[in-house]
Amino acid sequence: MAEYRIPERLQVLGVDIEKSELPYHQKRVAVTKEFTFDAAHHLHAYDGKCTNLHGHTYRLVVTVSGFVNAIGIVIDFGELKQIYRDVIERKLDHQYLNEVLPKMNTTAENMVVWIWEQFEAALAQYDAYRGLRLEQIDLFETPTSKATLKREWMI
């Protein structure tokens, strides 16, 4: 078994490692972040219990890819969180989805496309030189039921 060792000192930028060494590679890498929001909705022209007003704790899983920047990061997880807060959470969290989304049946299948469009537009505002792009979005209505959208399906 390996022995655990506490470092005697932290590495120092410019002494132990140079800034030019921070990006280890120039490969496309995907990063994923998960979010949750609560909302109510009901479905039109549907014969089942979802015809009635009900709510979900939605889980949104967003995967973005790109090339690392000068310090080895594709996109900061905090930036992804801010995009989510600005374009998704502020619009959908604790809302009646039938009123706040464009006219549509508020199925997970319709919602995941709308979320993709919002996220993609917001992502375009970030450093384009890194080639940032959405790769996949999963929208869970329940822990075992989700709608998935992949980049190649949006082309």
From TrEMBL:
It is an enzyme of class 4 (lyase). The keyword Lyase applies. Pfam families: PTPS. It comes from the Bacteria. GO terms for molecular function: 6-carboxytetrahydropterin synthase activity; metal ion binding. It catalyses: 7,8-dihydroneopterin 3'-triphosphate + H2O = 6-carboxy-5,6,7,8-tetrahydropterin + triphosphate + acetaldehyde + 2 H(+). Its cofactor is Zn(2+). Zn(2+) binds at H41, H54, H56. Binds 1 zinc ion per subunit. Its EC number is 4.1.2.50. The active site is at C50, H94, E141. InterPro entries: 6-PTP_synth/QueD, 6-PTP_synth/QueD_sf. Pathway: Purine metabolism; 7-cyano-7-deazaguanine biosynthesis. Keywords: Lyase, Metal-binding, Zinc. Belongs to the PTPS family. QueD subfamily. NCBIfam families: queuosine_QueD. This is 6-carboxy-5,6,7,8-tetrahydropterin synthase.
